[in-house]
Amino acid sequence: MKKSEINSSEIARLAGVSRSTVSRVINNYSNVPAETRDKVLKVIEKYNYFPNASAQVLAGKRARTIGLFLIDQGNVSSDILTNMLIVSVIEHASVLDYYVLTHIIRNAKDTEVIRNVREIFYQRRIDGGIFIGAANREPFIEQLIDEGFVVGVVDQELPDHPEPNRIVSNFNNDSGMKQAVAYLAGLGHSRIGVVNGDMNRLSGQTKYEGFKTAMRMCGLQVNPKWVMDGDFHETSGYNAIQTLLGIESELPTAIVAANDSVAFGAIRAIKEHGLLVPDDISIIGFDDHALSEKHHPPLTTIRVDFSAMLKRMTTYLIEKIEQKTLTVKEITLDCSLVVRESCRRI
Amino acid sequence: MKKSEINSSEIARLAGVSRSTVSRVINNYSNVPAETRDKVLKVIEKYNYFPNASAQVLAGKRARTIGLFLIDQGNVSSDILTNMLIVSVIEHASVLDYYVLTHIIRNAKDTEVIRNVREIFYQRRIDGGIFIGAANREPFIEQLIDEGFVVGVVDQELPDHPEPNRIVSNFNNDSGMKQAVAYLAGLGHSRIGVVNGDMNRLSGQTKYEGFKTAMRMCGLQVNPKWVMDGDFHETSGYNAIQTLLGIESELPTAIVAANDSVAFGAIRAIKEHGLLVPDDISIIGFDDHALSEKHHPPLTTIRVDFSAMLKRMTTYLIEKIEQKTLTVKEITLDCSLVVRESCRRI
DNA sequence: CTGAAAGCGCTTACAG
DNA sequence: CTGAAAGCGCTTACAG
């Protein structure tokens, strides 16, 4: 019933050695004879002793904890992707014997919120942190990096002279967009629109840039009326298409969505207008969201492996914390077209 | 570029007071004159000082961190419900200024895994923990409670003489099952089957018990051939119905599924056999999963508010940690029928 | 190979 | 109202 209050002195006493030796055993020092070692381990085992983490950290060891910061004003909780991200980080950190402290940032512009995030680093609760969903070059993250904390940022630009404590990871959005446009062009589309993502995010920018480049390379014109704003959320796709269908008489035959959520929203709006996908308008997404395959119609999209990305990010971040891989600065993962049923030949 | 290394001595020196006073200011002691307080706060603010968390904990303060333990052998990552649970806990802990250390337990029977979980408590990384997905009376959790740690367990029986450091939360599964059966009976069904959940879990047991009681109260017979095993996962629903449709010539007109995932699997199997829901067989689920509304057909189910449950669990757990609500032992939430299109009148 | 001792950065009785 | 000092439970040079 009583909480264990045994400490290293007690273990030392019971094993007939000094606390120094107990510590050496726990930390696997090589200069402890097997016999002493076994004797101590036996006592540790018997009394269910685990060293107090705070004392260890205070004495100079790492917290063996990383922070996972999810920036999303919306409904993080209902997004199946978010879940995969969280679980990927936790599981891969766990393999390296690290813990994950997850924090949700609803408003990255609120100074009180920023203060809380900074506090977690300054309090030394974590050895480093991963940020997901941040604006490109988000100032408070730049500051943390500047202050020397080990930080990994997903979907972020690498500066010209990157600090050794910064890691950045991205998908090859340019390639993805080129594949999307090439596929549509191959199906005979030339009237292609786009619903953009959040342009404060690097991926929002690179996807749109990729789209424009791809259109040019396919010899196609970008019609400004078919370039629509969005923010990576379902609703923005819905709203964009609502507006388009409400105003424009000239419609595109295909639309590239900044991600699958946006594509879902777009399709919903199209259906509400009594039109069909892909019969009236073809839609291609980006991400290959867990629901895309089961969507009606099954969504043609650009597949991206978030789980692999977060695994690598987590691994490299921890290696950086432990001063191993000093050279890794950037992680880039490819993406590839998955053909389903939301685009048709015309 | 350099990591902040300022500490309370430094702040004390800069403010012209002692470390004791700095500590008193930080901890909001009442016996510090406003003037001194302001002077110290100014320096703290200026130098961006945050007390080292490990030192605070070692000196006797709480870690202000709770553990969230998710037990799931399967694909935690693809379950949208899990995400909501994690986010609910994190956000409500955050309101109370607590952090959440999330841990995934793939195999609650593996001694090494159990050791890791126990370690987190013994290391004093957390002040308490919440377990989700555990078997009823899972021994290692019982042990932690026995050892005096503050623990909340979702979907768990309350023992006869509950310890003050235990909280348990459940949905009123009995009521839910009665509503489900009553609804089906009202639609004219008398041939009602059930796909059970994991019978090691309390909810697996209570749902089945509720089902049997409800059938009796409606004057209906439980046909043992229509009582199928499951484990709360989609696949088990699929397998159960595959077997049923493969073997039995006499079929039920309606099936109650232990949860919505099981219902999805059941419907998938029914469709594969060329039958229709609800035309050939009616299906009712349990949970009101985020996808149930969008399912084809939209799933009739028993709605349950996981987010509210986890919010209350988190709040009470932290209050227990802080020795406030000493009386709360059990949280029970009601559930209610949501009629959609997966059940028909016969 | 091993112990005594200093030190990590706090908090909190204690004394004044 | 405030400071000096002890103590939290570890780790790690240092000396032997």
UniProtKB/TrEMBL annotation, chains A, B:
It holds the Pfam family LacI. Keywords: DNA-binding, Repressor, Transcription, Transcription regulation. Residues 6-60 form the HTH lacI-type domain. GO terms for molecular function: DNA-binding transcription factor activity; transcription cis-regulatory region binding. InterPro entries: Cro/C1-type_HTH, HTH_LacI, LacI/GalR-like_sensor, Lambda_DNA-bd_dom_sf, Peripla_BP_I. PANTHER family: HTH-TYPE TRANSCRIPTIONAL REPRESSOR PURR-RELATED, LACI-RELATED TRANSCRIPTIONAL REPRESSOR. This is LacI family transcriptional regulator.
